[in-house]
Specification:
Length: 163
């Protein structure tokens, strides 16, 4: 029994050795020579150290920002409406024609300027607080969106230019 097991194991090892030789050692282009790397290894190491330092600095900045978010958010809730209007000038807040509800336009079409993403709120203060919270959190709306109508027109113009 042990003899058969040993023979099977030796046969497996021989086949594995042949497979490894055929697929890894015989291929010249897949493995990089240490001599080829030479000076590049030092440059790569310096570059990676620099990237690691940048990542650590960004991580530290993010950690310090999140510590004072609570205080900054709380200050917004105590701010009067006029103060909130001063903060949120970069967003469009529109009153709806009926009632006291407002809508916040978050993203516009690049081509025609029509609103793409709109959030509706029951009161103007809610809309102001929403936008102020977005700005405090560092939200940046996308500036490269287009509405479906403009996009289909754009695709048609591309088709015409190909012809």
């Amino acid at each position: 029994m042990m003899y058969r097991l040993r023979a099977a194991l030796q046969g497996f090892c021989r086949r594995l050795s042949r497979f490894m030789t055929r697929h890894f050692i015989d291929r010249k282009s897949e493995w990089a020579d240490v001599e080829e790397l030479g000076e590049n290894v030092g440059q790569d190491a310096r570059f990676l150290r620099l990237q690691l330092t940048k990542a650590r600095a960004e991580n530290t900045d993010l950690k310090s920002q999140t510590k004072d978010f609570g205080e900054r958010f709380a200050a917004l809730f105590h701010m009067p409406d006029d103060g909130l209007r001063e903060i949120v000038r970069s967003y469009e807040i529109r009153r709806k024609s009926v009632g006291t509800s407002c809508e916040v336009v978050l993203e516009h079409c690049v081509f025609c300027g029509d609103p793409i993403e709109v959030k509706v709120f029951q009161h103007e203060r809610d809309a102001l607080l929403y936008v102020a919270l977005l700005q405090t959190a560092g939200y940046q709306p996308q500036r490269n969106l287009s509405c479906p109508l403009c996009y289909t027109e754009y695709e048609k113009s591309l088709e015409l230019s190909k012809d």
